[in-house]
């Protein structure tokens, strides 16, 4: 357990490093959210003294807390440009949060290793998409109707919450495979991030309520100290990463992000041995 006396400073220093690294990498790869933040947070929380049994829970929940303001800001910006598919978003207004709340219940009893396995499984599939994706790949000419659409919304909410991500990669993949433009997919994903992050934060607060091993300034599994430190640092560092990205080709960035995810999967797998 992390105590206020003497041990809070290392935690703050670790969170400062996590915020800067996550922001830079989000800007570099053009993908925000937990796909980057969760492994970065996990790599600094345990050395800072957070109990290993809940470090993954705190990383996932805190990542969702960071996503709330960024997804809201992104959604309103995309909506102002008229790029959001409101019909799809409205059809998921109950399905995605239902998946989120189901995941929050699962998070209340699943182990940290179990969360790592979920993250590894989805991250590996995303890595394969990044490494071998072709824009010509299609599963259909338009997004399917119910009940398949509702089921997909529930799954996106469920797995995104357990990973601590805003659902952008999953939503982008789903929409582009069904003949939607990447611009509309990205815009709509920002709205899905709102549907995931807000109920996700509430659910993870409830799931971790009263855990004796939580780090200081935590409400359930969400560490408010981390959220307050990481948000401004990630916003400040993201443009630096984006500037570096301009010197690289898009395909090279996709490959680099795929390799990054495979490295994360390998590290998580090693930690489970």
Automatic annotation (TrEMBL):
GO cellular component annotations of the record: plasma membrane
Transmembrane spans: 12-42, 54-76, 88-107, 151-174, 186-209, 221-241, 253-270
Compartment(s) where it occurs, according to its Swiss-Prot or TrEMBL record: Cell membrane; Membrane
InterPro entries (alphabetical): TM_pro_TauE-like
Keywords from the named record: Cell membrane, Membrane, Transmembrane, Transmembrane helix
Membrane topology according to the record: Multi-pass membrane protein
Main location (coarse class): membrane
PANTHER family attached to this UniProt entry: MEMBRANE TRANSPORTER PROTEIN HI_0806-RELATED (PTHR43483)
Protein name: Probable membrane transporter protein
Source organism of this protein record: Pseudovibrio exalbescens
